[in-house]
UniProtKB/TrEMBL annotation:
Entry keyword Cytoplasm: yes
Domain RecX third three-helical: 103-149
Superkingdom assignment: Bacteria
Assigned protein family: Belongs to the RecX family.
The protein's name: Regulatory protein RecX
The gene coding this protein: recX
Amino acid sequence: MLSPDSSTYQQVKNSALDVLSRREHSVVELRHKLLHKGYMNALVEQVVNELQTQQLVSDVRFCESFIRSRINKGYGWSHIQQALKMRGVTQQTINDNSISHDVDWLALAQQVRMKRFGRKQPTTLQERAKQMRFLQYRGFNSEQIRYALTEE
């Protein structure tokens, strides 16, 4: 274990802080980026653990930021959950997040559909299927999709 005043340790820490200064990262993402830069695993673990202790990297903060960002981009809950899991956030952290509980997912699905396809509802089965696939890809569930495809 290197001491915190070692030049190699400080180099890894500075690199981590540089990454974190751009946007929030999950612990797994930060670890992966530092390892990808060629730093030794033990050194990366030491730096990441210290940054977690200092609350400079937090999966909870990352989760909140990521969810807010994806909602603003028009993604549904299942898409957001899957993306968070891929970034190493635990299901418990995802479930504990309160932002997802405050969203009107039905209205968001309808808003996303109208932005992409306009106010007019689909008239053919082919158009309806296309819009359903789009909303499903965006992470909306069947209830939300049905709501978005009903007359206002």
